[in-house]
Amino acid sequence: MNFKISFFNKSLIILLLSFFTGSSIADELPRQYLRAINLKFAQVNNYSASIVVTTEIPFIKMFPIKATIYFKQPDLLRIKSKSIAILPKQNVDQLFKIMADTASYEAYLQGDEPINGSETKLVNIVPISDTSDVVLAKFWIDIKKSVVLKSQITTRTNGTIIANYTYGSNERYALPEKIIFTVDTKKFKIPKAVSADLNNYNAAQNDKAKLGKKGKITIEFSNYLINKGISSELFIK
Amino acid sequence: MKLFTASLYTELIKIVAKPRSYIGFIVITAIVALIQFAMWIDGLNFINFITGNVEQTFLIEGKILNGSLVTFIILQTLIVHIPLLIALVTGDLISGESAMGTLRALVSKPISRTALLLSKLCAGGIYTLLILLWLGIISLGLAMYVFGNGDLIVLKSEELIILPSDDLLWRFFCAFGAAFVALMVIASLSLMLSVFSDNSIGPIITTMGIIILFTIIGTMEIPIFDKVKPYLFTTHMIVWRSFFESPVDSSQILHSFLVMVFHITSFITIAIVKFNKKDILT
């Protein structure tokens, strides 16, 4: 058989090949970045750390509180505190939970973006399943250090939460030294009869000042104890 | 001074002897017990109703339902009602004597009318203090025993303030102190009204009416009332809540304190002037 390939057919094959080759590289690269972070975190079987939570939410006034965080693979997390702590619903381990299940998402490289002077690759993660709680996750990854410097996770249940990560001596485990969560806050209002907030003639003015602001929760980690063993009973509430 | 002390002692004996003096203690005990029982049974649902709005976005860790919160809820609930219980006793101090026909005998004693009135006010003040002490013992003491210590979530209609447990005791003491000054406004108001009346019920009902009216004005969010609210003593009577602010607004506390002292002084002055001119012969 004599194959005669026309110029048009040749061009089409080259185009398709380059498309498929190109797309597999584009899909593989972000997965490599995520895999490198997963590998770092996989070294951690369990950890505990002291944390200081500073809450700056327009309708909540509170002092920074001290607590202890406990984590055990694969997904046990507990924050123990004598004080009342306000934390973002997407917890500190959400990032690793999403990245760990590599079969559940498609990863796309969106481009380069500097974060606090560091060059990062912006990787978008889109879940394959329609029923996944996560709608879209964006990770700004420092590929030299294999750590996430910023994340933006949108879920059906909790909306969008942006987190900025700073690393210290435990960077080799991808464990942060500080996380700053930025959250869109809704207006807080409870009936005056419930709060018994009677005769408060300043309330209306205060109310207007607190609308449409973002909330910020900063968690500072210290005294990491990594792979020292933690009993599973500690995670039973 | 000796005559004043003797008169004060007599007035205290009179208060102790009257059955209505115990109504305040009984009512406070019943309300506190009822609130604590309700919080013990269904407190978590109440908390969820308040924090539900916050928990849509945030996770709240820690023991929210504790003795500090229950005490704060009790204080908030009772602050509207305790003045009425105080007026029940202090509104009767002069008018009760008139009604019983003992006023003439009383003012014929070798003590000035001003000193007599002030001794009655002091007796009313001691009664108020005892009511507050009782409230403090059964609300704070019992709540801490039943629910345990913990951080306090201060409930406000437009915000939440979370105060650490080790920063609360002084706030509760100051709050009770501020509540005492606030209740003395009521005691002096009802005493003043008592001077103008010759029957027991009139001053008590009038005092209650004034408190209810002013509280309704203070509660309604109508712009025209906003201009009036700063001048109502009921607005400043909730100054005890300012000790649970973060940071504590000392200028607002001082302002409210001065307004309340002004009211107390005015009511007592009017009462003294009227009592000194009061006709006891007819």
Label this structure with key terms.
heterodimer; A: 237 residues; alpha+beta; 10-stranded antiparallel beta sheet; B: 282 residues; mainly alpha; two-stranded antiparallel sheet; 12 helices; 72% helix
Question: Can I get a quick summary?
Answer:
The complex is a heterodimer of chains A (237) and B (282). By secondary structure, chain A is an alpha+beta fold.
Describe the 3D structure.
The complex is a heterodimer of chains A (237) and B (282). Chain A is of the alpha+beta class and 237 residues long. Helices cover 23% and strands 43% of the residues of chain A. The longest helix of chain A has 36 residues. The N terminus of chain A is likely disordered. In chain B, strand 2 and strand 3 form a beta hairpin. The mean pLDDT of chain B is 89. Chain B has 282 residues and is mostly helical. At the A-B interface, strand 2, strand 5, helix 3 and helix 4 of A face helix 2, strand 1, helix 3, strand 3 and helix 9 of B.
